[in-house]
Amino acid sequence: MNELTRLTPPRGGGVKEKKRVGRGQASGQGKTAGRGGKGQKARTGNMNFVGFEGGQMPIQRRIPKRGFTNPFRVRYALINVGVLEGLGLTEVDLDKLVEAGAVKDRKDGLKILGDGEITKAISVRAHKFSGSAKEKIEKAGGKAEVIVIPPKATPQQRKAEEKKAAAAAEKSKLR
After folding, report:
1. I need a labelling partner for 48 at 20 to 30 A (CA). Which of 23, 38, 79, 116 fits?
2. Whole-number Å distance between alpha carbons of 162 and 154
């Protein structure tokens, strides 16, 4: 059985002793403990954080800020009707396209675009279709089925739902 008293360092060293600074001139770190003489960097709590530019206005504050990134945006994996023709599938959905290697990133859903021609009847299940893509698929005798994505809940909506659930649970405890 292993005991703490029997532990040994790994072969070839590997355990380095902590540098003991501020222990006087005989410690091997000298009187300034490796910090040099005076100045901002010699003091404790010196300003070495990321983005500090020596008192100059940092670049992340100098550049103008415009617009915002919508956290609720829905990004689609795009594929054209002409590509579907070349795959040789009779039924197409996002999983089959990923499996076939036609779509690399699943993103939030699949959108079919109308570039190219289609001659075979293909049943396509996607989250969105362009008007021309839907028209071309149906013209070739295929079926364009839309998958509905439930909208993402905002943090406020999630908090309200949690409160509602907690109140319902509290109410059921009282009965």
Report:
1. 23
2. 12
**Calpha distance 15→8 (Å, rounded):** 10
- The secondary element (H helix, E strand) that includes residue 164 is helix 155-174
Element (H, E) at 86: helix 81-87
Name the residue among 89, 76, 68 with its Cα closest to residue 137: 89
Q: Within 13 Å of residue 74, how many CA atoms lie on the same side as its CB?
A: 14
Report whether pLDDT(144) > 70: yes
Average pLDDT on 60-65 reads: 94
- Distance between CA atoms of residues 111 and 129, nearest Å: 6
84-134 pLDDT, tens digit each: 988 888 899 999 999 999 999 988 899 999 999 999 999 999 999 999 999
134 half-sphere exposure, CB direction, 13 A CA radius: 11
What's the pTM? 0.55
pLDDT, the chain, mean: 88
Q: How far is residue 43 from each of residues 31, 38, 169, measured CA to CA in Å?
A: 14, 7, 55
Is the C-alpha dihedral spanning 75, 81, 83, 88 positive or negative?
positive
pLDDT at 22: 85
